[in-house]
From TrEMBL:
<dbReference type="InterPro" id="IPR050054">
    <property type="entry name" value="UPRTase/APRTase"/>
</dbReference>
<dbReference type="GO" id="GO:0002055">
    <property type="term" value="F:adenine binding"/>
</dbReference>
<dbReference type="GO" id="GO:0044209">
    <property type="term" value="P:AMP salvage"/>
</dbReference>
<dbReference type="GO" id="GO:0006166">
    <property type="term" value="P:purine ribonucleoside salvage"/>
</dbReference>
<dbReference type="InterPro" id="IPR000836">
    <property type="entry name" value="PRTase_dom"/>
</dbReference>
<keyword id="KW-0963">Cytoplasm</keyword>
<dbReference type="GO" id="GO:0003999">
    <property type="term" value="F:adenine phosphoribosyltransferase activity"/>
</dbReference>
<comment type="function">
    <text>Catalyzes a salvage reaction resulting in the formation of AMP, that is energically less costly than de novo synthesis.</text>
</comment>
<keyword id="KW-0660">Purine salvage</keyword>
<dbReference type="Pfam" id="PF00156">
    <property type="entry name" value="Pribosyltran"/>
</dbReference>
<protein>
    <recommendedName>
        <fullName>Adenine phosphoribosyltransferase</fullName>
        <ecNumber>2.4.2.7</ecNumber>
    </recommendedName>
</protein>
<dbReference type="GO" id="GO:0016208">
    <property type="term" value="F:AMP binding"/>
</dbReference>
<comment type="pathway">
    <text>Purine metabolism; AMP biosynthesis via salvage pathway; AMP from adenine: step 1/1.</text>
</comment>
<dbReference type="GO" id="GO:0005737">
    <property type="term" value="C:cytoplasm"/>
</dbReference>
<dbReference type="InterPro" id="IPR029057">
    <property type="entry name" value="PRTase-like"/>
</dbReference>
<keyword id="KW-0328">Glycosyltransferase</keyword>
<feature type="domain" description="Phosphoribosyltransferase">
    <location>
        <begin position="29"/>
        <end position="149"/>
    </location>
</feature>
Length: 170
């Protein structure tokens, strides 16, 4: 199946000059949804994972499906103030400022084997912040995997300490 044909470019979203990779057509197609999940799962090459961490919000789409296939738990990482219990936070730089992510302090146990999943790897800021949170809680990052990697933004070059896999590269 040609998954690329189900990802459309939306110019000037969310701001002028950005070409947004819209995956909603892929999500609406049951066969594409199943194939995408299976292909993301294959990127793991049989590695043992007991927690899948997904970043808000599109990491919540395939993250739980991967967790189910792995018989692992799913852990959300969210923007500040969205998680109801005690959290740990990590602030990171963006091209135009800073942002912060949070995780529940009891979501990862020392020694957990963790897959970090998100829909897009762009500059690497969000993924690196997630990695730092996981490591601060004692988790071991087995892999960071993404549906899409925007190679022209060089995000994977900022993630040299981790195994990075992407299903589609643009």
């Amino acid at each position: 199946m040609d998954l690329r044909s189900l990802i459309r470019d939306i110019p000037d979203f969310p701001k002028e000059g950005v070409i947004f990779k819209d995956i909603t057509l892929l999500l609406q197609n049951p066969d594409a949804l199943k194939e995408t999940t299976n292909e993301l799962f294959k990127l793991l090459n049989g590695q043992k994972i007991n927690k899948v961490v997904g970043m808000e919000s599109r990491g919540f789409l395939f993250g739980p499906m991967l967790a189910s296939k792995l018989n692992a738990g799913f852990v959300p990482i969210r923007k500040p103030g969205k998680l109801p219990s005690t959290t740990l936070s990590e602030t990171y730089d963006l091209e135009y400022g800073t942002d912060t992510l949070e995780i529940h302090i009891d979501a990862i146990e020392k020694g957990d084997k963790v897959l970090i999943h998100d829909d897009v790897l762009a500059t690497g800021g969000t993924a690196n912040a997630a990695c730092k949170l996981i490591e601060r809680l004692g988790g071991e990052i087995v892999q960071c995997n993404f549906l899409i990697e925007l190679t022209f933004l060089n995000g994977s070059s900022k993630m040299n300490d981790y195994s990075v896999q992407s299903l589609l590269k643009y």
